[in-house]
Specification:
Chains A, B: Residues 151-224 form the HTH crp-type domain. The structure is a homodimer of 232-residue chains. Chain A is built from eight helices and twelve strands. With 232 residues, the first copy, chain A, is of the alpha+beta class. The structure holds a DNA duplex (30 and 30 nucleotides).
Amino acid sequence: MHPHDPEVTAAITALDLFAGLPASALDEVTARARVRTLGRGARMFDQGEPVERAHVLLSGAIRIAQAGSDGGQVVLRFIGPGEIFGSVAIFTDHLYPADGIAMVGSTEASWARADWLDLIERYPRIALNLITIVGRRLAELQDRVREMATQRAERRIANTLLRLARQAGRATGAGTEIGFPLRRKDIADISGTTLFTVSRTLNDWRRQGLIADDRRALTLVSMAGIGRIALG
Amino acid sequence: MHPHDPEVTAAITALDLFAGLPASALDEVTARARVRTLGRGARMFDQGEPVERAHVLLSGAIRIAQAGSDGGQVVLRFIGPGEIFGSVAIFTDHLYPADGIAMVGSTEASWARADWLDLIERYPRIALNLITIVGRRLAELQDRVREMATQRAERRIANTLLRLARQAGRATGAGTEIGFPLRRKDIADISGTTLFTVSRTLNDWRRQGLIADDRRALTLVSMAGIGRIALG
DNA sequence: CGTCTGCTTGAGTAATGTCAAATCTAGTGG
DNA sequence: CCACTAGATTTGACATTACTCAAGCAGACG
């Protein structure tokens, strides 16, 4: 896909990141974007690599996973369409803090570091939008830290599912379907538990009719029920 | 203290947040600041309250603590002199995400929301500085989430102490002294464990000569030793 | 049909949380 | 100066969550 593809242009101009920009600025933003499509399992970038570009996801899903010097791994976030990713380190230590891996075939737009800084300088509104986005992620991480410190695995899993539903939920006949192709391990790595505990917990919930799980997508049948578990 | 107090002026103009601003801008920033001193235990703001001001700590120490709807509590961060706090929510949901409590007598500067937004609009460099600061805190929280998910209590405590030493450490004859008046409960609430586990762990380390703890301040006698524990 | 990846289930165990009680320290006021 | 108090810390005993490891199963895909 080319940056000037009308579909791509529409997607870029609709991003929260560029809200409030005049049409002329959006043209410029679009013109400088590089658009790239990767297959399932491909790496958008690797942890520790220098950050040369700012990224936005146009379609698909990305897993942002951080590995420790020991084996331990966590998922910091799943990225859905319209979300920015792997871009904040341009302002800090210039190294990607995590791997970015396509969970399904995905298309991203990205801007070279120099273009990005230039655009922000000329359109400071982008900086404000970025502060808002990063501020929201900060608040979400703060919630996760509190949950991991004070809640047991089952509640954390419930809170995780509710967050994912908020982020990428689609209402369907059966309930709210989460728009990421999640394996047990993914849910474990973002909830701070093991895939075994996730498996047991989700099976309990399925038996109780709280969720449905057709191995294609996870659906929260009873948000209220999951919500009750999340509250303790 | 008055904003025009020369000591206060110097402290404000030295802040990372205002790095790169021309002198005229710094004058304006200083002129609009409100300076306030609070005693030990006083609340700078309460969780859930609307954010009307942006804050910077000039001296002292603040505990930023978030409580869940259940009793659970975590410390999100300790704030030392020169650090911004309780200011990001101006751009998001306009509510303080946590309590801000003076751990010792503390002096802060703050700006009314409208002044703050006006200053940022006229000096976009402030926005860039803010992105850098928030980006670093985001990275730190990501590290903490990974630690809580993958490391056991002892290692998390070691990592916590190393982080605090980096943030507020002073080299002394005996080692690196942490510049916050920390109780066991504080260390527990930021490490994601209990004050009992912290007590046992710190006593072990003291017996091994890794730390000293004269109930006035905590000193890391052997950063290398603590570092080895942090690595596993 | 075989292989690979992911999921489920069971059994055993260790880390650490919970609770109770004793001890210590700093500060207060007689 | 000393007794008293409140808050913080230490230590012990115990309970339990959820991690670890092993084994078998299911579905997808070539």
